[in-house]
Amino acid sequence: MNIIIIGAGIGGLTAGIGLKQHGHQVTVYERVEKILPVGAAISIWSNGVKCLNYLGLTEQVKNLGGDLQQMAYIDGLSQDTMTQFSLQPLIDEIGQRPYPVARAELQQMLMQEFGMQDIRLGMNLVDIQENSEDGSDSIQAIFADGTIASADLLIAADGMHSIAREYILGKKLERRYAGYVNWNGLVEIDPEIAPDQQWTTYVGEGKRVSLMPIADHRFYFFFDVPVEVGLENDKSQYQTMLKQYFAGWCPPVQKLIDTINPQTTNRVEIHDIDPFNTWYKGRCVLLGDAAHSTTPDIGQGGCMAMEDSIYLIRSLAINTNSLDDALKRYQDVRSVRANDLVMRARKRSDVTHMMDPATTEAWYADLRKEDGTHIMQGILSNMVGNPLD
To answer: Keywords on this record (predicted)?
Structure first.
């Protein structure tokens, strides 16, 4: 088939790579003229890594990943260790090590593997039309510059603000503010801030400060703060604001705030979208955030997009009754799993960010009694049901 993919993000590119491997002609159209990642890094849990392994990218993702050996929660004010444990039992259970990676480096690797010659940048999708009256059974993507691209299938991996989602559903879905703002970026690993092989999270007051090791001796960091939506976003004030938000927190947190470069730090107001079940219409199908926009609280957003890609690739390959049949099978399986994870992430977000103070304080108390078993069971439960189990 001749296939158009809208969006050169993680989901669109993984789908493109796999579809090319199955002999399809694939072109990716991306709105921006220059690829600038949203967010500094991404947690690729074992289910996501398995998707990349399936595409033959095992060594490539391994080279991008940090050496993540253990996990710890630290009281952000007192610096007491609440729980600390090895991730090896989880790795042994699932059969694959997770990798935190720099998002830009992952995206560049996927673009190179897909083929830069088949990526069209600066192409802003404005409309979709299907044509079956003349027997051609095609779909057209119409872009802001007047370009019209025709294909047998259009895969919309165009993110939370998806144009294709509105086309499929016949209405625009409103985003829901999750109640917190996230600042994130990259810094050099510093053992005075956190151990170099550990995912370290400082918690307290409904806030989080988290660090994960990625390749080339760097930490991915993020700060979460529950604040109202729509506040001024001034990079020159990031450190001052973070000092205020984390006043009284322990020395490693203060050193991290002093270390960050505000100009390369991202600030994101976290939103999600209520789950829905209709993922396709005719020859247009949704994938990734366009289908299931989630908060990042269980680290499965990117992994779900990759799972979508693998399942869609396989559905198109093995279900030969019709294109409609293959897309329906993809929709009916993936929507159930993805919608469940969207709601799990929403629930975890509320607990973590003190939407109910008593619930969050109870979670803090549980962390102090935790040996890692329950946390790893939770992480594993998010990965069970992926297309490569």
So the answer is: FAD, Flavoprotein, Monooxygenase, NAD, Oxidoreductase, Purine metabolism
**Residue 113: partners with Cβ closer than 8 Å, 6 or more residues away:** 13, 17, 55, 57, 60
Contact 76, 205 (CB under 8 A): yes
Note the pLDDT of residue 389: 75
3-class SS string, 231-257: CCCCHHHHHHHHHHHCCCCCHHHHHHH
Predicted confidence (pLDDT) per residue in 98-122, tens digit: 999 999 999 999 999 999 999 999 9
Q: Determine the structural domain holding residue 324 and report its residue range.
A: 2-175+272-383
What average pLDDT score do residues 183-197 get? 97
Give which of 295, 24, 42 is closest to 155, Cα–Cα: 24
Residue 106 is part of a domain; what is its CATH number? Answer: 3.50.50.60
Q: Which amino acid is at 351?
A: V
Task: Kindly report, residue by residue over 265-298, the tens digit of the pLDDT.
Answer: 999 999 999 999 999 999 999 999 999 999 999 9
How large is the average pLDDT for residues 168-185? 97
- The pTM (predicted TM-score) of the whole model is 0.95
Among the listed residues 108, 301, 97, the one whose alpha carbon sits nearest the alpha carbon of residue 213: 97
Confidence category of residue 324, pLDDT binned at 50, 70, 90: very high
Best CA proximity match to 301, nearest among 45, 6, 15: 45
- Residue 19 located in a structural domain: yes
Domains held by the chain: number = 1
